[in-house]
Structures are given as C-alpha cells and as structure tokens.
Amino acid sequence: MTMNIPLDAAAAEKHLMKFLAIDGVTGQEAAIAKSVSEELQAVGVPASAIRFDDAHTRIPLPTETGNLIVELPGTKPGPRILFATHLDTVPLCAGAKPKREGDHIVTDGSTALGGDNRTGCALLVSLVETLLKHKLPHPPITLLFTVREESGLHGARELKPSELGGAVMCFNVDGKLASELIIGAVGQENWDVEIKGKASHAGVAPEKGISATLVGAIALTEAQRAGWFGKVVKPEGRGTSNVGIFGGKEGQPAGDATNVVTDYVHIKGEARSPESAFATAITAGYRAAFEKAQNEVKDAAGAAAEVKFSNTPAYPPFTLAEDSPVVERAKRGIEAIGLKPTTLFSNGGLDANWLDKHGVPTVTIGAGQYEIHTVKEYVDVPEFLRGCRLSVALATLDP
Ligand SMILES: [Zn+2]
Description:
Layout: H1 9-20, H2 30-42, E1 50-52, E2 68-72, E3 81-86, E4 99-101, E5 104-106, H3 115-133, E6 141-146, H4 154-158, E7 169-173, E8 180-185, E9 187-196, H5 212-225, E10 230-234, E11 237-247, E12 264-273, H6 276-296, E13 306-315, E14 318-319, H7 325-336, E15 342-346, H8 351-357, E16 362-365, E17 369-370, E18 378-380, H9 381-396
Parallel strand pairs: 3-6, 3-7, 7-16, 8-15
Antiparallel strand pairs: 1-2, 2-6, 4-5, 5-18, 8-14, 9-12, 9-13, 10-11, 11-12, 17-18
Helix pairs in contact: 1-3, 3-9, 5-6, 7-9
The structure holds zinc ion.
Zinc ion (ZN) binds near residues 86, 116, 117 and 149.
C-alpha cells in the first residue's frame, strides 16, 4: 500500500532554488550554512536546536565553518535516526545561476549547478517542514550538514561520533535516484613518491647522471607488469589504481631541458578496493616496483637515485548487508512511496564511508542530481520530489 505523503512540492522547490543560488564551494560553506539555518528556523525549528561542531579546526585545509547539526526531539518513541547531506559544491559551481526549464533546473552552461548537493540541503529542510507542519509522528532525528565533502570527505571524517546523539542508522542524501540505495563503497589509499636522481649534461656526460624520469618510468612499467595498474584482479582481492600526477617540483614539469639528465620527479597515485587490506596491498605493489626500478638505474660510479615512497589512507571502505536494519528500512521506505528499490556499491568514497566508520550504518539515497561536476549538471525536479517524499517515509515508518 502506498503511503500518502503530504509534501508541499512548491515549498520544497523554493528551498532548492534558494540554495542553488548561493555560492558555497568546498571550504567556503558559511553562507550556505547560514541560509540553511535560517530556512530551518522559518519552518519551525527553534534556534536552540541548531549548532555547529568544531570539525573545521581539525581539517588541514582552510574551512569557514564546522558541520551544521540539528537535533529534533521525537514525537513517538524509537531509536534516533540521522539524516545527512553535504553543504559544499565543487569549485565549478561558483557563480551558478539556476533556472527552471521544463522538469529540470539548469544553469546557463558556464558553470556546474550544485544540485550536488543542494538537493540534499533542500530535502532535509523540506523533510522537517513536512514533519512539523503536519505533526507527523517520528522518532528523535538528527540532521547533519557536512562541510568539505567534495575536497576529501573532511567534515564527515573529523566529526566526533558523540555529536550524533546516539543515532542508530543514517540516511545520507547524495545521489541521483530516490530508489537507488548505495549500501557500500570502496576505500582508498593515496601514495606519493619523490625520486631524487642526479643532474648531468645529457650530451657531454650522460653516464654521470641518474635519471629520475627513467626510475619513475621503469617503476610504473614494473607495477603494470605485476598487475597493479588500473583494474586490479588478483586471487587475494580486487580493486583499482591510478597514477595521477607525474611531474617535478611544485607543479612544474619533470625536468626542464632536453640536455640535462632529470634529477627530480614527483609522482602521485591512488589505490581503491572494497577491502582496505587490498588497497594497502596494491600500494605495496607500487612500493616494490619503485624499489626495483631504483636498483636498475645507476650512474657510472654505481650510485642510485634516492626514492622516498609514502602512503596514507584516504577513507575506509564499508559494506552493509542487504538485510541490515538500515537497508531494510530504506527498502521499506521506497516501497512505501510506490517505487522498487535497487542497491549498488560505489567505486568512489562518500560521507557514508566515515559515518559508517563512526558507528552509524549509512545508506545513501538520491534526490535528482544529474551530470554532477560538469557544466551540463541539472536537477530533475520530479526525482528531487520523490527523494523528499522518501525521506518523510523513512522518518515516519514504524521501526
Ligand atoms: Zn555530493
């Protein structure tokens, strides 16, 4: 039986248009956070229920504000539910001018739109508006609006789990289709190599040089031959890897003249896998390849390059069981609004990776964002409204 959700679609769209018109690229979330806070108060949330955490003081990049957190008391008993979304947009969204065109909200084509993730911000405000206006019974709810998602999931990463009021499950809004549930995602490691060779005149005395470029090239060839490059499928696991940057000092090219043996190269790459141990194994494969290459390139006196390989975990993977309580509730919610749920595993990290790590199992749902991070980005309004209705179902279903 389909639930009747009393959503005010015009009000929901108004929130969305308002938020889309506010600049708030990653790290610069103060204005959008203020607007979200004002809209929440306008729909009846007391100012005392709205606060910011201090996550931005722990983020290693300049960040205007902490995560915005809202606590709503329950009007029926039940475990606390968290609804999350991110405030920031990618830099390509700066200056976006949203306009309605048929069923879509688009821009003038010179910027991205920011439906990723203002659809989430508008959805959370519309959810609260609907719950309060129609006095719909719901368990205690926490809303979380994170900062700096787009630049590395920083707000969610630096969030203290104690800020979430003991929420037992979370619905994160950051996707396309309301009926499509993201129930897991890969984890990622980043690796970084500095190769210090030795410069020498390439025509007069090439044998006296140690080419950092050659060490890097051999290492990457080795990594590829050993099966660690691109799509990685081994008996012990699967994942992906990439070499993103092959350059010199501070954004310069590797080497600066054809007649000098290149003395310095800086290479950056990544490894992803559904298993964090296997992401580490891929990284170890690259490390071994660089060690091997280091021993193959020597000058006439037998000296080798200095190779400094380092790696850092970027975010942990997670996988929720199809029959876990949060996935089960998400599926029931989708069926309640007359749709058929599907589940998928993401090859990119989400705030959900960190929320799950913080102890709150998190399913990510969609609310109409399309062609994200491009100048063709648009919001599909009917899909956005389906996402809004879904959130009301998720908040009001019996446990
Ligand atoms: Zn997003």
